[in-house]
Amino acid sequence: MKHAILFVLSAFFATQTLAAGLPENVLDDPTAIGPYDAVEANLSDFLWLRRAVVVFADTPADPRFTRQIELLEARPDPLIDRDVVILIDSDPKKPSEIRNTLRPRGFMMVLIGKDGEVELRKPSPWDVREITRAIDKMPLRLQELRDRRAAQDAELND
After folding, report:
1. For the segment 43-84, what is each residue's pLDDT rounded down to a tens digit?
2. What residues form DSSP beta bridges with 52?
3. CB under 8 Å to 40, separation ≥6 — which residues?
4. Is the omega angle on the peptide bond into residue 35 within 30 degrees of 0, that is, cis?
5. Rounded Cα distance, 116 and 61, in Å
């Protein structure tokens, strides 16, 4: 419930945040998942810290774009648990560095791993469950889970 309240508040204040760029705490606060404007973002800032879900469209009125944002906002907790930040770019007239790098055509949802590699490109909206399943298959995520289990086991043995 705590994560849901924080997510709702961050979504509510997103419009003020977008005008000023990415908030300073986006890398330090795991509950600051966005969505944030991709124009202000640089993927190298998230390297080894956060996974990025980037949602592109040619207009914010695109029904696929709207649906994808609704799906992401509906279940923030699994995304928070997996260190995800959501970036959006719905204006090809003001191309972001990320748009120039990934070169989407119309709507596209892209999942970028902590290592900076594109893990997934989808031309249609994906549910949080599908996204988290894809994340959970990544080698770095598997290592994170092993490390977490080892730390829990060590805590229990102390």
Report:
1. 998 999 999 999 999 999 999 999 999 999 999 999 999 999
2. 85, 112
3. 18, 21, 22
4. yes
5. 29
Which tokens sit at 76?
A: 């923030």
**Gyration radius of the chain's alpha carbons:** 16
Within the chain, strands assigned E span: 36-37, 51-56, 84-89, 108-112, 118-122
- Joined together, the tokens standing for residue 39 give 């124009």
Q: Amino acid identity of 26? A: V
Report strand pairing: 84-89 vs 118-122. Answer: unpaired
Residue 77 token pair: 């907790």
Q: How far is CA 28 from the centre of its chain?
A: 14
Task: Judge contact between 23 and 32, C-beta under 8 A.
Answer: yes
Q: End-to-end CA distance of the chain, in Å?
A: 31
Using the structure block, give the residue that is written with the tokens 């092993």: 146
